[in-house]
């Protein structure tokens, strides 16, 4: 089946008055128009269903810990998302719901999530599977590009983790190092930090005071304040972030406006949180 993609802009109406919004969405999703008695157009019904799925999803939980989720709300969110997918539409929140339920079903200590009522959500599983295949193809394509020119797409400082979505997103060393080993960096900070090592290739006879050469770029500082977390050079970079809710694997964070240093700070903070979380759990057991 081909799915049309819905934008989630309409979801912001939700916070204002959830109960009356729910009642309206239920009418729109499942009833006929009171004035004309005509069926409500599919394009409008699916938006109501997507809103219903989102509102149930919001009700499931007060925090990001899957162990505390209300499994009935999770299921209702899944059912609305499944109804919407059955009509051939998919929104970002539906994909999010489907993927998170799938992760929940893999947790050994949440057997309720493997109840057959979840297995029945066939259309939801279909959109999740379609999206997963799409993401795998995108990743494969990207990996192939990067493998051909790793020096151009990945910041050369060990442990940095910033990648450019295009070659032009990173700064190339402007020194005399050979083209096939010429490194690229996400920031001048990273280049400076790598210079001690790179200097041996770039300037084999360099004196200690020699500075690295790099194309002009906005200066990056190690300590970031909020004002300095933003850049305007329009270059798109990405970083792999730990998956907070799933707790395993990573998800890419892609940005044209966050500075690489800020993105790394965010990643490191999330990693710290996950470590503390894991510590708490092992203490509890
Ligand atoms: Zn870097
Ligand atoms: Zn060089």
* Weakly predicted, low-confidence segments: 216-225
Number of strands: 7
Q: What gap, in angstroms, lies between the N and C termini?
A: 45 Å
Major β-sheet annotation: 3 strands, antiparallel
Alpha-beta classification: mainly alpha
For the residues shown, what is the average pLDDT?
82
Proportion in helices: 40-55%
Choose one word for the global shape: elongated
User: Strand order of the main beta sheet, please?
Assistant: 3-6-7
What is the C-alpha radius of gyration, as a whole number of Å?
24 Å
Small molecules bound: zinc ion
- What is the helix/strand order? EHHHEHHHHEEEHEEH
Tally of contiguous helical segments: 9
What count of structural domains?
A: 2
Strand fraction equals 5-15%
List the helices and strands and how they pair.
Blueprint: E1 4-6, H1 18-30, H2 42-59, H3 71-86, E2 89-91, H4 92-106, H5 116-119, H6 122-148, H7 150-153, E3 163-164, E4 171-172, E5 184-185, H8 188-202, E6 237-242, E7 250-255, H9 260-284
Parallel strand pairs: 1-2
Antiparallel strand pairs: 3-6, 4-5, 6-7
Helix pairs in contact: 1-2, 2-3, 3-4, 3-6, 4-6
Protein name: MYND-type domain-containing protein
Domain MYND-type: 157-202
InterPro entries: Znf_MYND (IPR002893)
């Amino acid at each position: 089946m081909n799915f049309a993609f819905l934008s989630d802009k309409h979801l912001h109406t939700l916070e204002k008055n959830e109960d009356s919004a729910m009642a309206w969405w239920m009418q729109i999703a499942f009833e006929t128009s009171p004035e004309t008695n005509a069926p409500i157009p599919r394009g409008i019904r699916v938006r109501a269903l997507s809103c219903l799925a989102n509102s149930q999803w919001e009700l499931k939980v007060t925090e990001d810990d899957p162990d505390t989720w209300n499994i009935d709300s999770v299921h209702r969110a899944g059912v609305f998302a499944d109804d919407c997918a059955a009509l051939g539409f998919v929104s970002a929140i539906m994909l999010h719901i489907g993927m998170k339920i799938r992760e929940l079903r893999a947790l050994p200590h949440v057997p309720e999530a493997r109840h057959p009522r979840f297995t029945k959500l066939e259309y939801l599983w279909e959109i999740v599977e379609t999206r997963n295949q799409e993401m795998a193809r995108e990743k494969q394509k990207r990996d192939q590009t990067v493998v051909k020119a790793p020096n151009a797409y990945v910041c050369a400082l060990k442990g940095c983790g910033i990648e450019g979505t295009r070659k032009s997103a990173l700064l190339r060393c402007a020194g005399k190092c050979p083209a096939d080993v010429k490194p690229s960096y996400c920031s001048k900070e990273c280049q400076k930090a790598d210079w001690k090592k790179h200097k041996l290739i770039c300037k084999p006879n360099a004196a200690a005071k020699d500075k690295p050469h790099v194309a002009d770029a906005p200066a990056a500082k190690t300590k970031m304040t909020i004002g300095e977390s933003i850049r305007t050079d329009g270059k798109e970079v990405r970083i792999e972030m730990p998956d907070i809710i799933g707790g395993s694997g990573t998800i890419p964070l892609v940005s044209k406006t966050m500075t690489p240093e800020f993105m790394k700070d965010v990643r490191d903070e999330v990693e710290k949180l996950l470590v503390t979380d894991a510590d708490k759990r092992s203490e509890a057991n």
